[in-house]
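Aim 2 progress update. The chain analyzed this quarter is reproduced below.
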Amino acid sequence: MPRYKKGIRNNCFHQNYTHDVLFPGATFRTRHNGECAILGRSDDKSRRGYYVVEFKDSGIIKEAYGSHIKTGSVSDEAFPSSEEERRKLLMTPKYYGVGYIGNGCHSTIENTRTHQRTRAFILWHNMLARCYMTTKGKQYFKGYKGVTVCERWHNFQNFCNDLPKLHGYNKWKDNPGEYELDKDYSHRRIYSADTVAFISTEENAKEAGLRRVAMKIPSGHYHEINKIRDEILMEAEDELKNNQINYEVVLDGNMKVILCETPYGTVLFWPLTKKIQRNCYMIDGDVQVYVYYLRWLILQWENRNPDINCVATTC
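Predicted structure tokens:
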């Protein structure tokens, strides 16, 4: 007879069935908790496709969905035995070391019968994966090195609360396959309510193409330019300082980019390739052109908004 653990939910099962893979006694290796063995199929008729498994190392017995067992995505995490334990568990980071569900009204499950995840959860989970997923100690998504998710959005409940306030949310809600959550909308390397927006897949592809063009150095000049990349950046910084312009140096891929905020959005300058970009628009130009363009944007704002402090608006 199988062992039962006190407080473990739905541990009743039967072995009166046949299955080529998930048969009684079959063992499977999990991703994080060693091996588990199939004890039988769940007796709960409302949970079709569920099996009861026992984890060899911990002795925990619990229900698990068949496909999750086969892929090794089950864990020996016991069901909470009290409300206090449940709330504590929801506040424990379990997604890529930072993400947690949190206590609130937003569920991660859309369909309780199939355990299908909500679109909001999938969006949140994929965002965390791009920034924090690692393999063999190295970042899995190399293009996201240095990209982070703001601390507020580590909590799934906060993420869901902020979703309706994001630019383009209604379009994504009505046509999820045609819109994507994009941090590059503001040209920042962080996911937060202030730096992301839902943009169309077509617009996102265009934006990515513009960034690739901006980072492209002609092969014939690459080695020559690369040798003096630090000097080029320092010269650009000196020019901005002399003109008393606030700026920030950020890393985009393997190239350092100068970032300035204006009332009309973020303006980027790639010193090595002499490209200037605001939103989806890009022009060629050196640091003098960049300074001139920034001053022109500020002047446009001041002429149109004489009673509003431009500096305060961009902070």
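Residues 1-9, 310-315 have pLDDT under 50 and may be disordered. The chain has ten helices and 18 strands. These observations will guide the mutagenesis experiments scheduled for the next reporting period.
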